[in-house]
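Long-time lurker, first post. I've been practising inverse folding by hand and with some scripts of my own, and I keep getting stuck on stretches where the structure tokens seem ambiguous. Below is the full token string for one chain I'm working on. Before anyone asks, I'm not after the true native sequence, just a reasonable design that respects the backbone. If someone could post their per-position residues I'd love to compare against what I wrote down in my notebook.
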């Protein structure tokens, strides 16, 4: 079961490909159906989201504005960002036995 399916959008994603100037949802959360059956650990319904606060976004105007602030450009040019992907967050609940 792909919990990330409802997040698909043209206006936000987890990765921004500048070559085509499009958002992609490369980072996903996939669980077995038993994660949704209220036994052991349960995924909170509708809790999945893309975590994209301002401090993780590119602040310089231009092609990559508001996309993830990359750590590196290529292999060696350090940019100081955190990642080239936004994280995906889902809430889990432990169930008492």
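-- Answer (accepted) --
I ran through it position by position. Result:
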């Amino acid at each position: 079961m792909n919990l990330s399916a409802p997040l698909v959008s043209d206006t936000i994603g987890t990765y921004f490909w500048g070559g085509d100037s499009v958002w992609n949802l490369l980072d996903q959360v996939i669980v077995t159906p038993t994660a949704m059956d209220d036994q052991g650990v349960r995924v909170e319904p509708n809790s999945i989201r893309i975590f994209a606060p301002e401090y993780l976004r590119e602040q310089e105007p231009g092609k990559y504005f508001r996309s993830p602030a990359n750590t590196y450009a290529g292999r060696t040019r350090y940019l100081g960002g955190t990642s080239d992907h936004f994280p995906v967050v889902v809430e889990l609940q432990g169930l008492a036995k």
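A couple of notes from the structure itself: The two ends are 24 Å apart (CA to CA). The chain has one domain: 1-97. Happy to go over any region you disagree with.
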